[in-house]
Amino acid sequence: MKMNNRTMIVCISTVLLASLSGAEAATTLTAWTFDSLAVGINSSPQPSTGLGTATALGMNNSYNNTNSLSNPDIQSLAGSSSGGANSWRVHGFSSISGSRGNGWSTNAPIGTQGAQFTGSTFGYYKIKVSFDVYATADAEANLQVQYSTDGSHWFNANIASAARGVIATNTTSASTVNGTFLQLVSGWNNQVTADLSGLSGMDNNASFAIRMVNASTGTDCVDTTGAIYNNTSGSWTLDNVVIQGQTIDV
Question: Which pTM does this prediction carry?
């Protein structure tokens, strides 16, 4: 049977449309947009979609003789990738009068300061995580994404993309995480994505957890200008934290 060009184009288009319609779309499993939450102190903001927990990490400490207490809060800060202006700032405050400490410190070990989010991936695979993060000009600039299958053991995730900031890889310094991390720039660093597809234990896991934490310690800690972090100021603010996956075929 002969086919003219028009018939051939129609056939090809039909095949492509069938393929696209059959492709699985990613489902949002748990997400935090913070837009339905009141502005003010909030140590564990509830997700806007799904079930999960959010916790600030490493802000209770006595680094630099400041006796910092964790003090995360919902604030209004426009400029993230989508939704309203509300977002979640991670920082502390010093209980010592006159001290400028705010919880963040170059003395903190790698991967101990930032935020943790949990959310089940039960029934799903091809897991991806995305988020927006605002860094003040004097904030710690080196951020890593960690993942866990049990909430206790943590591993560095590969950062696949980011609309701003620089994805870097460390293989030499003991004071920075081995592998990929994000060098934040001042302001919003939107649509940061970590692709966890194919990693053991990520799929179908009710104990899935992620962290956005400091990638460096000591003199490797720098602010968004490239200067050594000063231990007295700066913070990260998170928005549009999304855990997504595709349904496992049964």
Answer: 0.89
